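User: I would dearly like some help making sense of a protein record. This is the protein in question:
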Amino acid sequence: MTQTKSVDGLTVEQERTNPQYTNLLGEKYELEQAIASAQRELTEIEAEMEPLAAEVAELKRELAAKEELQTRLLQELELKKEDYLTAEANYSQARRDLARLEYNLSLIQEPFVPDSPVAPNKKLNVAIAGILALILGVFIIFMREYLKEQ
């Protein structure tokens, strides 16, 4: 809207702004502020994402290594199960084979209970002790004489 006035031969035009235009300018300013804020926030988030991306890559490598280890361990487990089952089958077969064997045992002589109790021979033990004491005595005498000479 334009208003015209004449003052001292000069024409002055005065424009009024449309209130809708003013509202739109206000909304535009608010939106520009929101965009700037969102861009700052996006920049901060991207800065935080860089170390996280490296950490994710490292975790993926670790996961791959763990999965490979798991696969290998599962394969070993299967092999051990097969070995166990084979050993168990061999053991069962050996037990069956032993059960089929016939042992031919024969008694050579009937056992008997002696008439007199078995006891140590005291005379023989005393004789052996005496001879050993005599040999030990002679050895001690020779050792004393030998050590005196040196």
Observations:
- The mean pLDDT is 88.
- The longest helix spans residues 19-100.
- The beta strands are 2-7, 10-15.
